[in-house]
Amino acid sequence: MYRQIVGYRDFHADVSFNFQLNRWLPYLPETELRQAAAEIGDFGDWKRVMWRCAERAEQDSRWAEAGFYYRAAEFFLLNSDPDKMRAYEKFRENHARVSWDVDYERVEVPYPGGFLPALVIEPEGALLDTLVVHGGFDSFAEELIHQFAPIAKCGFRVIFFEGPGQGYPLKVLGMHMTPDWEKPVGAVLDHFELQECSLMGISLGGCLATRAAAKEPRVKRVIADDVLEDFFGCLASRLGKRQARVLQTLLDLGANALVNRAMGKGAAKDPVVGWAVDHGLHVSGTASPFEYMQWGRRMNTRGISHELRQDYLLLGARDDHLVPLEQFYSQARTLVNVRSFSSRLFTASDHAGSHCHIGNQELVNRVITEWLLLMLDGDRKELN
């Protein structure tokens, strides 16, 4: 079952392994994770150890833990590994076996190429608003419902959906992610006959939700949880400033072969870069690192932030290892026409200073809920 965790643990010296271990801590026993971490030195170890833990949990009928161990194993597998799809299937299979203490309904939203899966939690008490939630580069809807379910207790219908390039639409239906995120958001709003809603995007979803809100007037309130103004900037930051400038120049020149070679070298030096490129090719449907980098350059909010007229809540994390801190401030500066602007930069003292505030989801939910209630109260006062 899901547990509210406070505190970011030191499981592993590698920042990426440590982040993922903390990510799954709300679902998995801390003692087991510490034992697992001691055996992990590379991606091969990660798969072996997480898969073994998953099988042991299945043997003990610990379905929730089995599912999330498979999810953890799946995360770092390359798409050429047939076990990646098997791990995804085992995750969903075990997740469905659990009698979760969150009641939700599965809904299929019609969309070109198939459908978008949505998970819906109805509010406790009178309906105040509908909050539509989606992930970003690598999350599944089944993860998000447990993190944000408490918001429904305050009068919000919460709709979690997977769009093109995410979860089931990507893995099973072959849909690739589009920067035109107003299209999947619009399909969800159409299907549920919503004339207005609040929209929240997680991780890369902060960029996607901002892009969607610029084109979709039915979105009245936007939550970027957390900031991600420039996806290419996040990718380039792992290469270092000098290499990032060289890469930018090569992309501008259309130097396809040189970019592919440079990214190959980067992947050889940094396995996380290799994983990100492999996953990115899959998400974007591009055929080479050059094409993927060009696609990634479109994933930004610079050209559209000034178009937003909604209430906007920007969340950031001071110690984020994936999103450069300067994007928190540059995103804030470009939202010049929003109806209202609020922000919160979480820190280590909040136990929420890591990417997506892993370590204190309870605090994040409280900040989001209080902001939503404040915005709705302001709307009611204006009407009166």
Automatic annotation (TrEMBL):
AB hydrolase-1 domain mapped to chain residues: 131-335
Keywords for the protein's UniProt record, in alphabetical order: Hydrolase
Claim: Transmembrane helix is one of the keywords in the record: no
Organism: Parahaliea mediterranea
GO molecular function annotations of the record: hydrolase activity
Protein name, as recorded: Alpha/beta fold hydrolase
InterPro entries recorded: AB_hydrolase_1, AB_hydrolase_fold
Hydrolase among keywords: yes
